[in-house]
Amino acid sequence: MDTQKVDMFIMTNSKFFESHQLGYIKEELLKLDDSKWTMVQMQQFKDPTTSLIVSLVGGGSLGIDRFMIGDTGIGVGKLLTCGGLGIWTIIDFFLIMGATREKNMEKLQQVFMNAY
């Protein structure tokens, strides 16, 4: 794949991933065929900042932040326990952005697996 396309993808989507994952993403994108580029471009990633805002505004105690990123099991657990009586909610204030970025990475890895 064209280096310029890969660099543009990294620049526009770097906030959706952990910084240590960007090198791996770049390597994998460079290996891809140009025909797979549309498949990569069509992916919509969850915004970690939005997840944090939802968690802080009150959706964290109901598990809405976890439902948003696809962690249904944890979301149900937080919903049934009112955010673990508030403790789980406070812990998630610090973890939700990283969890969102990890889910985005899993989604991109699925694209890489399907591309080969």
UniProtKB/TrEMBL annotation:
InterPro entries referenced in this protein's UniProt entry, alphabetically: TM2, TM2D1-3-like
Chain ranges of the TM2 domain: 46-94
KW Plastid (keyword) present: no
Places the protein is found: Membrane
Domain of life, source organism: Bacteria
Pfam family membership, one: TM2
Membrane protein topology class: Multi-pass membrane protein
Keywords, sorted A to Z: Membrane, Transmembrane, Transmembrane helix
Main localisation: membrane
Chain ranges passing through the membrane: 75-97
Chain coiled-coil ranges: none
Keyword Transmembrane: yes
Protein name stated in the entry: TM2 domain-containing protein
Highest classification ranks of the organism: Bacteria, Pseudomonadati, Bacteroidota, Flavobacteriia, Flavobacteriales
